[in-house]
């Protein structure tokens, strides 16, 4: 069994659900990358995120801490590494319930 909490969830699903929850303007405020600012679309965002690992990581972290984690409340929370904790803490503090 994979230890990846996003195992089996496509990048397209992640971007689509984040867009549905936040919309492009708020998504662009939460993650400052141009594919969410300039002529945003699912297709252009996917193209950029597939080529840019650091941006994809930020999008996956936001998805996990705002959508996926809430859907799996019965599971034990995962430990996070210090490298990504600043981003996660910021997202958790500003994420609407």
CATH hierarchy class name: Mainly Alpha
Structural class: mainly alpha
Task: Characterize the main sheet.
Answer: none
Architecture in CATH? Orthogonal Bundle
Number of helices: 5
| Secondary-structure element order, N to C | HHHHH
* CATH homologous superfamily identity: SAP domain
- CATH-assigned fold name: Transcription Termination Factor Rho, Rna-binding Domain, Chain A, Domain 1
The amount of helix comes to 55-70%
Low-confidence stretches: 77-82, 84-97
Total number of distinct structural domains: 1
Radius of gyration from CA coordinates: 13 Å
Can you give keywords for this protein?
68% helix; mainly alpha; Transcription Termination Factor Rho, Rna-binding Domain, Chain A, Domain 1; 97 residues
List the helices and strands and how they pair.
Layout: H1 11-30, H2 34-37, H3 42-51, H4 53-71, H5 82-94
3D architecture notes:
This protein has 97 residues and is mainly alpha-helical. The protein has one domain: SAP domain (Transcription Termination Factor Rho, Rna-binding Domain, Chain A, Domain 1), CATH 1.10.720.30. The chain contains 5 helices and no strands. The longest helix is centred in the N-terminal third of the chain and has 20 residues.
Question: Can I get a quick summary?
Answer:
With 97 residues, the protein is an all-alpha fold. Helices cover 68% and strands 0% of the residues.
């Amino acid at each position: 069994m994979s230890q990846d909490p996003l195992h089996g969830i496509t990048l397209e699903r992640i971007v689509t659900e984040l867009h549905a929850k936040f919309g492009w303007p708020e998504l662009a405020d939460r993650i400052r990358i141009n594919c969410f600012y300039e002529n945003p679309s699912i297709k252009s965002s996917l193209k950029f995120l597939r080529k840019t690992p650091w941006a994809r990581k930020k999008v996956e972290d936001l998805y996990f801490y705002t959508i996926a984690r809430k859907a799996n409340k019965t599971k034990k929370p995962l430990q996070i590494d210090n490298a990504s904790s600043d981003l996660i803490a910021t997202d958790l503090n500003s994420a609407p319930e």
